[in-house]
Model the fold of this input.
Amino acid sequence: MDITFIIIAAIAGLIIGFLLSKSIDSKSATGTLKTAEKEAEKLLKEAEKEGVNLKRDKILQAKEKFIELKSEHEKVILSRDQKINEAEKRTKDKESQISNELSKAKKINAEVEEKLKDYSYRTEYLEKRQEEIDMILQRKINQLEVVSGLSAEDAKAQLMESLKETAKAESMQMIQDTVEEAKLTAQQEAKKIVINTIQRVGTEEAIDNCVSVFNLESDDVKGRIIGREGRNIRAIEAATGVEIIVDDTPEAIILSCFDSIRREIARLSLHKLVTDGRIHPARIEEVVKKTRKSIDEEIIDIGKRTIIDLGIHGLHPELVKMVGRMKYRSSYGQNLLQHSREVAKLCGIMASELGLNPKLAKRAGLLHDIGKVPETETELPHAILGMQLAEKFGEKPEICNAIGAHHDEIEMTSLLSPIVQVCDAISGARPGARRQVLDSYVKRLKDLEEIAFGFGGVKKAYAIQAGRELRVIVESEKVNDEKASALSFEISQKIQTDMTYPGQVKITVIRETRAINIAK
Done:
């Protein structure tokens, strides 16, 4: 390309010189042309010389590149040869190893075949020996059947029955021992917690009645209370809903009503009327109305004081009012507010001992019988009704569950529920807390004795200690010592399953053996 460029430049120079020569006068044209030709020849020689040098340089560069590529190619070939040699060496090693393994495998196969032959021989020998033993055993069995007069199946049945009775007695004893041990170990801390809790809570033994006695300064006031033709006493009974009994009791009249609030309104109203001295129907209605309003305010104040005393905060105003109304409710003669306060304190102490939240426990204990307060007619149990009221007024789920589950109407889902149930039982079962209903008391004793008579071998049964102990007398000929222990366990399980009772029932099985002889 350089030569061509030089040639083209020379031709261009010639053309330019030619043109220049045309513009110069004819005299200098010839001289100029000669000069141009010389220069052109000079340029051509230089161009040829540079072309030769350039060609020689290019050839040298190509030779050097070829030598370099050849050297790299030889290195690659050498590397491949080395890899091939290594692969051949590894292949030879594998072949040698495989041949060794094959020789070992052949040797092992030979040993296994030898052992199989020996095993087959031993198996045949053992089968023959087993047949001989079976024949000997059968002969022995036949001889035993002839001697004992029993078939093998009968003897087996008798043995199984004997083993069954022995295993049953042993299992009953083991179960009883395990239960007793579990109770001993598990109840130690429980008893400690319960006893400490009860000792730290002091309550009065008080029972509410359905009547109130209103004392008078003199019997002359009775006539003023009755009024002309009984108008005053009828007005008082109509305004308060309380029956007023005026009899020969000196300086006293009786207010009878199952609603404690009505009785209290009637008592306070009578006190105001007798103190004021003006007793007539219009005045009676006015005083009763003011007293009822005062009682409503007092109920709210009682509820507030109760939750403050127990350290409970954030209770809905309607629930506060219901807590106050508990003062005028009773359960089996036990004041409901006093019972609920007692349960709340017990729950708080027990929750603290167990590492739970005492405030939540107190809250659940105070509200556990809130379903007994409303006067609405419903077939729901008071625990379910109380749970619904708590849910309605925004109480937490664990508190609602503790309220609804304290009589096992629903399943317990939190640790507060069993605490509330236990504390409710402690408060209700302590001496003097509640009146026992005679019919239910007698029925519980009768049911305990009937459960005992439902088991075989029972001769007599006595429910004593107010139904907290059951003594069972069995026939010594039908029940031995081991069966007596099992019978005690079975009766206890039956009572737990079929009956509802406060506290616990102790079952004592008595087996008496008598040896009687007659001297003639």
Remarks:
- The CA atoms of residues 450 and 461 lie 8 Å apart.
- Confidence is low (pLDDT under 50) at residues 202-208.
- Strands lie at 211-215, 243-245, 252-256, 330-331, 334-335, 458-464, 469-474, 506-511.
